[in-house]
Write a structure and sequence with these properties.
single chain, mainly alpha, two-stranded antiparallel sheet
Length: 264
């Protein structure tokens, strides 16, 4: 399993590094991850027996990051307008159904998936388009993914105290602490991109590390509810795309708003 994880991670890292320096290619790659992750999320809901508008949701989920990638804005906050229109469209779609049962669940879960996966992950594109965004994007990914690596390696070898066994029986307190330390080290290593004090960087790494682990645990909670182990099997050794991006889903918008405050 560890060997498969290393190979899959190396392939993803190679692809990412190949497109990182071209902003629009990087944005398209992030869009692809968002759509694939959203597809897995909707498949999880179908496994649970929830009726959703899967392909309508996927279309909406693709347009949000693409509109950001292509700088397409009808208003200053175009994605908010689009989310409102998406909600209205989903309600209109319900009018075509012959039955009224499950309407609230169908609309809520479809819209939640769009917000949770597509919109939140699209903040990585916003980060890339900030002044100095290349370094910022490397920073948030390095902090969160190093946290994942630290938590997995140390949790697998030294983990003895369960963190929240009801949600994720394999995660340990020792692994979580190691993940936070790795996130802080990742933040310190990014001083070349963020000319901040070491204390500031360490606190930033700690905060993003905590948020990244919350993202991981949140996805684990949803998988337990749907009674599945992995969101998919597309990434050998890593599970699905959603399993790979879960720590970034919350970290991306938090880091974007933090950098926006810091820069502007």
């Amino acid at each position: 399993m560890l060997k498969k994880r290393i190979i899959s991670s190396a392939i993803i890292l190679t692809i990412f590094m190949a497109v990182l320096f071209v902003d629009w290619l990087c944005a398209l790659l992030i869009t692809a991850f968002a759509v694939l992750g959203l597809y897995e999320f909707f498949s999880m809901l179908e496994h649970k027996g929830i009726s959703i508008y899967k392909y309508v949701g996927l279309g909406i989920g693709a347009i949000i990051p693409l509109s950001i990638a292509l700088h397409f804005e009808l208003t200053k906050r175009w994605e908010f307008l689009f989310i409102v229109l998406a909600l209205i469209f989903l309600i209109l779609m319900q009018f075509r159904r012959r039955q009224n049962t499950g309407v609230i669940v169908s609309i809520s879960t479809t819209l939640f998936g769009i917000l949770y996966v597509s919109w939140f992950l699209s903040f990585l594109i916003k980060i890339r388009y900030l002044p100095g965004g290349l370094g910022f994007l490397v920073t948030v990914i390095l902090i969160t993914k190093l946290g994942d690596i630290g938590a997995y390696l140390f949790g697998m070898r030294l983990g003895k105290t369960p963190l929240i066994p009801r949600i994720s029986p394999n995660k340990s307190v020792e692994g979580a602490i190691a993940g936070l330390v790795f996130s802080m080290l990742g933040a310190l290593a990014c001083r070349v991109f963020l000319p901040l004090s070491y204390l500031h960087l360490a606190l930033l790494g700690l905060c993003l590390g905590v948020i990244g682990q919350l993202g991981d645990l949140s996805e684990s909670l949803m998988k337990r509810d749907c009674q599945i182990k992995d969101s998919g099997k597309i990434l050998s050794g890593l599970g699905g795309v959603l399993d790979f991006i879960d720590s970034l889903i919350f970290a991306a918008p938090v880091f974007y708003f933090y950098m926006s405050l810091l820069l502007f």
